[in-house]
Specification:
The chain is α/β, with parallel strands linked by helices and about 475 residues long. The chain has 20 helices and 20 strands. Pathway: Glycan biosynthesis; glycogen biosynthesis.
């Protein structure tokens, strides 16, 4: 079995702040079926080693970016984990990237240390294990392929962009601290408007670049999505490819979900029960004649939260309602609270995040709103399809790649699985919401669309095969 080392800042179920963790945690099992053994290298944040239980030391460095570092090999379930213990970098209160007072001042060094360790394992091995391919994720893992390239190592490397908005940008004065060669500080290296971009370092040195959807790979070559690195992606377009994320269909399974009564595409009675329960939980009117929409999201401008009033107005006019779960910017939290006050019994809001509640919402919702201005892949719409919660999405990134919009042609062909709108503004969202309500009113047609979505293949099988084929191609080269 061939070997691949995955380098990332988070992975479910050990540590999660977003969709990156879901992907990194799901890939090892998916790739095992393709003949690849994947080990995941993570920082040993406070409490992580205790979750792993019994481990063994497979690599050590007495001076790893300011202190000693040791690499622990362990398992969590079936996932093999290499946890980098470096207390001076990772043993802290707070999350992976920030504490009570904001982002950690030395995040660049913290993740450079992770990348340095990964590069050393790729070059020299750890114990009796050495990877055939190194796979880095986002800016936190991006220096790993760069360190290998700068050292002249021949290990094939891949970097996956989960969100181009986060680039690991720091001042050029940190060049020495990050162990970066001054001769690579130029526009074709890791220099970015006079600063260092650790993401750019990976994009210019990795043998292959992937994004989490084909549409996003194309969008990143354009100024409105490329975040200043569109030229790098365009210049390297020959090695750029989009591979869709999947979801864990054992975790997101309406037939075996402990948070709701079981239901399936062929037996939807449990979904009706979940709808009533959701209305009660969010204190919504019992008799809604229109669709009960849900929104589970970070509350930021990127997610199109400022456009919500237009959609809510249309939902309420059609006899529907909205249940919302999320947290984020203060202005957005205040705005959605105001919507709940303006439409009592029609809009319910829970500020925060609760995984179990999100399952209940997908089970009970008729539709899920995803009006994002950009979305590399998105998992929310996939959960919606899986649970018969019809997605209403903007025509961007992975949203456009995974939802078949209801048009006269797609409806006639019995292919539609949701509603897709463009451009991303309140007028287009208002029109899309009207279309959603009209589709819902056709109960027979709506039921058919719900069932089509639930029968869509959303797992990791096809995507894992594409990753495996990419690894094989890099090895052959």
């Amino acid at each position: 079995m061939k070997r691949v080392l995955s380098v990332a800042s988070e992975a479910v179920p050990l540590i999660k702040t977003g969709g990156l963790a879901d992907v990194v945690g799901a890939l090892p099992e998916a790739l095992a079926g393709q003949g690849w053994q994947m080990r995941v290298m993570l920082p040993a944040y406070r409490g992580l080693l205790e979750k792993l239980g019994k481990t063994k030391i497979v690599w050590a460095d007495d001076y790893l970016f300011g202190g000693p570092g040791r690499l622990h090999l362990g398992k969590f379930g079936e996932m093999e984990v290499m946890a980098l213990e470096a207390p001076h970098l990772y043993d802290r209160d707070g999350g992976p990237y920030s504490g009570p007072h904001g982002d950690y001042w030395d995040n660049a060094e913290r993740f450079a240390a992770l990348c340095w360790a990964a590069a050393m394992v790729a070059r020299e091995g750890a114990g009796d294990w050495r990877p055939d391919v190194l796979h880095a994720h986002d800016w936190q893992g991006a220096l790993a392929p760069a360190y290998l390239r700068y050292a002249g190592a021949s290990v094939p490397t891949v970097i996956t962009i989960h969100n181009m908005a986060f680039q690991g940008r720091v001042g050029a004065t940190k060049m020495g601290a990050l162990r970066l060669p001054p001769e690579a500080f130029h526009r074709d290296g890791f220099e970015f408007w006079g600063d260092i971009s650790t993401l750019k370092a990976g994009l210019t040195t990795a043998d292959a670049i992937t994004t989490v959807s084909p549409r996003y790979a194309e969008e990143l070559m354009r100024g409105e999505y490329g975040q200043g690195l569109e030229g790098v992606i365009a210049a390297r377009s020959g090695v750029v490819m989009g591979i869709l994320n999947g979801i864990d269909e054992t975790v997101w399974d309406p037939e075996n979900d402990p948070d709701c009564k079981p239901f399936s595409a062929n037996k939807l009675a449990g979904k009706s029960h979940a709808r009533k329960a959701l209305q009660a939980e969010f204190q919504l009117e019992k008799k809604l004649s229109g669709p009960l929409a849900i929104l589970v999201s970070r509350l930021t401008a990127q997610k199109g939260i400022d456009l919500l009033p237009a959609a809510v107005e249309e939902l309420v006019a059609a006899g529907g309602g909205l249940a919302l779960l999320g947290s984020g910017d203060h202005w957005a939290e205040n705005m959605v609270r105001d919507l709940a006050l303006r439409y009592p019994g029609r809009v319910g809001v829970h500020i925060g995040y609760n995984e179990n509640l999100s399952h209940r919402m997908f089970a009970g919702g008729d539709a899920v709103l995803v009006p994002s201005r950009f979305e590399p892949c998105g998992l929310t719409q996939l959960y919606g399809l899986r649970y018969g919660c019809v997605p209403l999405v903007a025509a961007v990134g992975g949203l456009a790649d995974t939802v078949v919009g209801a048009t006269p042609a797609s409806l006639a062909a019995k292919a539609a699985t949701g509603v897709v709108f463009h451009p991303v503004d309140d007028l287009a969202l208002r029109q899309a919401t009207r279309q959603l309500c009209a589709l819902y009113a056709d109960r027979k047609g709506w039921a058919a669309m719900v069932k089509r979505g639930m029968k869509t293949d959303l797992g990791w099988g096809a995507s894992a095969a594409r990753y495996a084929a990419l690894y094989e191609r890099l090895l052959a080269q």
